[in-house]
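Course assignment 3, question 2. Fill in each field.
Student: A.L.
Task: Predict the tertiary structure for the chain below.
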Amino acid sequence: MTESSLTVAVIDPSRARAAILEEGLRAAGVGRVVIIPDTADLLERVSALKPDVVVIHLESPSRDILEQMSVVSRQAERPVAMFVDRSDSTMMQAAVDAGISAYVVDGLRQERIKPILDIAILRFNAFARLQRELSEARGELADRKLIERAKGILMSIKGLSEDEAYKQLRRKAMNEKRKIADIARAIVTTADLLG
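Answer field:
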């Protein structure tokens, strides 16, 4: 994605600070900058705008703002870069927990904006990839448990060995052009219903 194709939403109640951010973004070649002057209905506004990155600048973040930014980061699935004038370790930890991709204290200078956005995007993408991989791993583990349970049911009901039970699951899946986990789920559901 090139800078000229980026859309950046800038959230800042101060017009002067928003202008600095906008100027820095435009100087960095960002194609579209949209200023959002307050945080009312933020998720809806960000979802409608669909920016590539959300930049917020505050004097000092509050828990309410961090909760809103957490929702934006996770539900709207957008990287968030936060610039603050003052902070403490508790707020920094809360920002990390909220999924803020870049948290910069007292660092709003025009020449720093572009590198900070770049790192926010990279960190967000890396985190999203890790979340996908974790979700896939959990799904695979759940499927394995389901298959093991289905094999146990087949072994018990039909008197099969573990290997034979697995071969039956696999054969049924191939014949029906379905996943083994789907066949296993059907067996487990049926066994649960029949009690």
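Instructor remarks: The first helix runs from residue 15 to 27. The radius of gyration is 25 Å.
Grade: pending
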